[in-house]
Amino acid sequence: MKKRVLSIIFALAMIITSLRVAGITPEISSYAAGYRITLKSGAKVPSEMYCGKKYNLKFNGNKAVTFGSTCSLVAKVGKTSGQVTPVAPGKVTIRARNRKTRELLGSVTIRVLKRSTKVSADEQIILSKPGDTAVINTWLTPDDSSDVVRFSSKDKKIATVESTTGEVKAVGYGTTTIDVIAKAKKSVGNTSKTNKRTTVKVIVGTVLGVPHLDNMTYYKGQTDVKPLDVSGTTIAPPEALKVGKITYQWYKTFPNHMIEQEIPGATESKYIPPTDETADYRCEITYTSNAGQYSKATEYSNYATITIIDKVPVEFDANGGKINGETSVTKEVEWGKSVQFPDAASLVPPSEEYVFLGWADLSSDTEPKYGKDILFTPTIKHKDMFYAIWGIKPAPTPTPYEPPVEPGPSVAPPAQSQTPSAQPTDTPTTSPTST
Questions:
Q1: Exposure of 384 by Cβ count < 10 A (0-12 exposed, 13-18 middle, 19+ buried)?
Q2: What's the helix, strand, coil split of the chain in %, to 5?
Q3: pTM to 2 decimals?
Q4: DSSP E strands: which ranges in 225-303?
């Protein structure tokens, strides 16, 4: 027996020698040579390496070696340092050769794994009735991750799931979740802390999709109010509407949500809230199957806050001038009413060459929309602003020129005419003489 073993060894030695003489260097199997390549710590080289890490190798018994990788796309290795850098998932062999003769001294085959940073899946799966099936779609980040994805159901009375394919099967009506687990390899347990996880909501039965209600602000007494609207409610499966109906009921509560009041008569998909006080509103939507073919479903909308402001602010801007010494003044008025313009006497122009013309809606207007003789604004239905309009003060009308009158030479008044009157005399009257 000894002779036979020796003969076999001698024959193998002769074959190897003849190959070397022919210039052919035989490959040493990973098993035979792998133990000669170790980590620098002396520990055995792991059969699996992970992207994002580095591994330092050494060749025992011979320092003058050169390392090489059979696929640098999977893993790179430093020629002299022996440092391995995993690049992408796959298998690769790291070889050590004599630096001078290029003789293969040893090799080790490793599998490169790339862990995911995140696992994503369908957010929700809806199954109409027991017996229905669906497959969960999953995505790994990065998408070239080598992680293995597994599935597990929280409540198998509602739905089961095939652990490797993610096929979900409805068992009973209700809601449950499916755990989606990304792990480094099959042998890792589903509860390992190194796993990445997400969940998928599974609903078996009829499902209502309720639109979102927006918060709104109105003024007290305002009438042009937008209705709260859930008419866009959807149902799955759609054919459930053929054998059933959807009903609505609106509720009112206050910001603390302590007491919720059912609003009598508010049973349509749209509801116009009153504008007397601030309150929150939501709608209860219910699907009922006439034939019992589909399960009953009830959903609630979100709360919409309707904020009520007592009065509307109206601002009057002096537009470069002053109103009672201020650049602007604000008044408040009830919605749907008018407010008095500031008194024209309270306005001071930007400079002496300007004069107040009236009010306008825009500061850039050059002509007033509301003359200075108009005392009240139009009906106020929203926050508003009016701007004072100024014009160039007209030049004063010139007074016609009248030359001064100069005095002429003095003229004596004409003499007055006198009629002589009979005056008594001392001459005696001569009478006829007698002879």
A1: middle
A2: 10, 40, 50
A3: 0.54
A4: 228-229, 234-236, 244-253, 260-262, 270-271, 279-289, 297-300
